[in-house]
Structure formats: structure tokens, C-alpha cells
């Protein structure tokens, strides 16, 4: 275990402890896909429940090195879309971004789209049920994801069940098997040159997201506890500690990525030097053979041998 991994493990409990009051909040995940790479994830849906999937495709660090602004805004947008799920719209997620794109984010992604000049391939999103046994077919739902646009698939279980057949054809045993073995979510990057970042989240239809809403303003306290004088400084101190810990973790992750890139570069240089040495030895042997052959023929022609 390297020193960086040891420090990472030591700081992780501290970060989890500092975030203990916020453990009820779930953040979207960010997956990195290299060129021509496919990554799959497995998720479970409880029986008699359903799930919604939403994702956004962003450029990779090799094309857009400083993309923290874009990632932060789109992560917040997915959280806002998750909060938009309510019983009034049948627990479905909104199909597009809720807020208007800020000017700085819009300018950055507009410059990127102009540089690529419409050569961006669509990332393939595939949702499938789990194959259980040889006699159980796999049903899947394919969607194409465009850069900087949200992809939302509501009611995953219902969609895959519809591909399997009508509700009358699906027995309770089939539903139990699907609930136990889960579902698959795969992302495929067809770009042969550049990597992409996928921000995605999976929301259950039964999730109660009202707990994530902000507290009602001007609400009178029910006890004599002074929130403005006691709780606010405590929250500020905890936020400062969390931000400091996140800054340290981000710096360590950056150093880890930098060390990895430098190691790849060093290995590439060593490989080139090694092959150059092999080539030099080969050329030397070839020249020696040609010289010896030439001298033999010369001496034979002069009748010296």
C-alpha cells in the first residue's frame, strides 16, 4: 500500500464523520470512460417497486482539462431533477434540465462544441435485466446520449417487463428473480480518440425525496434553543472542515492521476529506449556480417586466401 493510499484511508473516516449529519443525501456518480470503452453497473430494485435512470455526458479531461465548473453544475441539476419527482406526476422524473444554464457554463460548452465542429458521437446507454440461467432471455432498452443533454429513462422495470411480454405472461416468480438478481446499466463510448465523463444516478420510485428539501424559512423554533447563535456557527465550522477535507482529497487524487500519467510516460520512454538498443545491436551485427563477407570475397578475388 502506497503512502497516498494510507493517507486516503486515514482521511476517509474523518470525512465520513464530518458528513454524518448529511448521510441521508445521495449524490450522483461520475464514471470515466476511455476511448472505445464500455462500463457496466449493477443495481437492484425491490419487489413491487420501480427505478428511474438519468445521465449526462461530459467531455473527458484529455479534451477539457478544467471541467469542475461543468461537473458541479450538472451534478446539482441531477439532484434538482431527482427532487422534482413527486406523487403528482406519478413519481416520474422530469425529462430535461429544470434550471436555465448559467452563462459561464453555456459559454464553456459552446466553445467546446465549436471546436469539435459536430463530430461528437452519441454515447450508447443500455439498460437490461439480469440473465439467470441459460433458458432465461435478456431484455434490454437502448438509448443514445448526447453531450450536455440529460437522458432520463423512467420506470425501468416496467419498460423491460413490457419487452418481456404482457403482465399476464410474467409470473410472480419471474418478478422475484429479477428483484434478486438486479438490473444492468451500461455506458459505451464509441469515440476512438477521446474519453468521456458520465454523471448518472438511479432513483427508486419509492424514494421519499422530501427529506432533501430545504427547511422552511421563518419557521419559529419549538424550543428555547437559539439556532442563530448556536447551530449556525457549528454548521459553518462543519462546512469549513468538510471543504478542507474535500480539498485535500481532490489534491491527492490529482497527484495520484499525475503520478499515474508520469509512470505511463516513463514506461513508454523505457520501452522506446529498449527497442532502440535492440535495433542498434541488430544494425551493428548486420554491418559486421556485411563487412566480413566483403573482406572474404575481396581476399578470395586477390587470391590471398
Characterise this structure.
By secondary structure, the chain is an alpha+beta fold. It is built from 6 helices and 8 strands, in the order H-E-E-E-H-H-E-E-E-H-H-E-E-H. It has helices at 3-18, 68-83, 103-116, 156-164, 172-181, 227-301, and strands at 29-33, 38-43, 51-59, 123-129, 140-145, 151-153, 183-188, 196-204. The strands form 2 sheets. The chain has a 4-stranded antiparallel beta sheet with strand order 1-8-3-6, with helices on one face. The chain has a 4-stranded antiparallel beta sheet with strand order 2-7-4-5. Helix 1 packs antiparallel against helix 6. The longest helix is centred in the C-terminal third of the chain and has 75 residues, at 227-301. It is elongated and about 105 Å long.
Descriptive key words:
305 residues, alpha+beta, four-stranded antiparallel beta sheet
Strand content: 15-25%
- Largest sheet: spatial strand order: 1-8-3-6
Overall strand count: 8
| Helix content bin | 40-55%
Largest sheet: 4 strands, antiparallel
What is the chain-wise order of helices and strands? Answer: HEEEHHEEEHHEEH
Count, helices: 6
Structural class: alpha+beta
General shape: elongated
Task: Measure the end-to-end span.
Answer: 67 Å
Average pLDDT reading: 76
Radius of gyration: 29 Å
Contiguous uncertain segments of 5+ residues: 3-25, 214-225
